[in-house]
Amino acid sequence: MLSFWEKKHFLDFDLIVIGGGIVGLSAAIQYKKQFSDKKVMVLERGLFPSGASTKNAGFACFGSITEILDDLNHQTEQEVLDLVKKRYSGLCAIREEFGDEALGYQATGGFELITENEIAELNQLDRINKLLFPLFGDSVFEEIKDISKFGFSKNVLKVIQNKYEGELDTGRFIQSLWDRCQQLNVKILTGSEVKHLDIEKSEVTVRDGESGITFKSQKIAVCTNAFSKSLIPQLDILPGRGLVMVTKKLPKTIPWTGSFHFDKGYVYFRNVDNRILLGGGRNMDFEGEQSTDLVVNYKIRDYLKKTYSEIITPGTSPEFEMEWAGIMAFGSSKTPIVKMINKNVGLAVRLGGMGVAIGWETAGDLVTQISKV
Ligand SMILES: Cc1cc2nc3c(=O)[nH]c(=O)nc-3n(C[C@H](O)[C@H](O)[C@H](O)COP(=O)(O)OP(=O)(O)OC[C@H]3O[C@@H](n4cnc5c(N)ncnc54)[C@H](O)[C@@H]3O)c2cc1C
Description:
Blueprint: H1 4-9, E1 12-18, H2 22-34, E2 40-43, E3 59-60, H3 65-74, H4 77-98, H5 100-103, E4 110-114, H6 125-136, E5 141-143, E6 158-162, E7 166-167, H7 170-183, E8 187-189, E9 194-198, E10 203-208, E11 211-222, E12 238-247, E13 259-262, E14 267-272, E15 275-280, H8 298-312, E16 320-330, E17 337-340, E18 345-349, H9 355-372
Parallel strand pairs: 1-2, 1-11, 2-8, 4-13, 11-18
Antiparallel strand pairs: 3-7, 4-6, 5-6, 9-10, 10-11, 12-15, 12-16, 13-14, 14-15, 17-18
Helix pairs in contact: 2-7, 2-9, 4-9
C-alpha cells in the first residue's frame, strides 16, 4: 500500500539501472555526468552487489601470453589486438577517472608460470610482442632471468612478465563507484530484486513483501550479467562460477607481488597484505561450475589447495581463512552484449572474466546507445 507521497516522489525516473555491479554503477555515473538534471536510480537485489563485482580477484589484466595465443586460435590477429586494446584502455580509463589511490591500484605487473605443458608456446613470444607493439610501443612480455626468488616448484620452468598489468583492491573500486554515485545524486536501492521487466511499458517491478512496487522510467539499462536470462530469456549467456580463497597472514614475508597466472590462466594468485589470494580452477569442472548458486565446489577447492602446496609454495600446507564464490557470464563470444532491445530499454551484459578492465567502457557504450534514441 503506497502513500500519496511515495507515489508522487519515488516511482518515476528518467533512467533505471537494474544491477548494481561494476557495469550498472558505471552506467548510472556516466549517464548522470552527461544529463545532470535527470533522475537516475540503480536497483540491486543484494545488500552488496551479488554477482561478480565484489567477489573478484582484482587483477587489472588484459591477457597472459598463453591466453592471447589461445584467443588467436579462434580469432584473427586484428580481433585479438582490438580485444587487448579495449581491456588496456578500460584499465587506463578507470585509473584516470578515480585515481590509483582510490582504487588501491598497484602497477606490480602480471606474471605467468610456464611448465612443460606450455613451454612450446614460448616460441611465439616474439610474434605476440610484435602484434602488441603498435599499442604499447614496447615489448610487453619478457622472460624473467632469475626465477629462483619466487620459490615456486621445480616444475615451473619459466616465468613470463607483463609489465603493463597490475592489481587493485576490489572493495575500493566498488567504494569509488558508490562515492561517485552519491556525489552525482544517483539513488541506489539495495535489497531490491527486479522480478518483472515490462519492455513495452518501460516499467520494472520490485518484490516488496508479498506484493511488488512498479517503477516507471523513460530509459532502462539492464546490467545483470550472468543473471540476465531471468529478465530476458533469449540471451546467449551461460553462468560460470569462480572460487576464491585467501590464506591466513603468512609468518614470513612473501617474496613477490603482482598478478600471477598458472595453468593457461585458469588458476590465478596474488599477494594481498602478506596473504595469498588464490582462485580459479574452473577447468577442473566446467559443467559443475555452470551455475548461479553461490556455493563452494569441493573438487575445485582440492585442486587449488594442491596447486598451492605443490606449485606455489612447495612442501607447505595452506591454512585458508576465507573462501567465497562469485558468478561470471560467458557465451559464444568473449565480447560483451551491448544493445538496445527497443528505443527505451538497453543492456550491457556477459562480461566474462575481465570485467574490472572492460566494465567501465562497456557501460559507456550502453550509455551512448541509450542517449541516442
Ligand atoms: C571469482 C571471480 C574472480 C574474478 N576475477 C577478476 C579479475 O581478477 N579481473 C577482472 O577483470 N575480472 C574478474 N572477474 C570478472 C569480473 O568480476 C566481472 O566481469 C564483473 O564484475 C562483471 O560486472 P557486472 O556488473 O557486469 O556483473 P555483476 O557484478 O554480476 O553485477 C550484476 C548485478 O546484478 C544484480 N542482479 C541480478 N539480477 C538482478 C535483478 N533481477 N534485480 C536486481 N539486481 C539484480 C546482481 O546481484 C549483481 O550485483 C572475476 C569474477 C569472479 C566471479
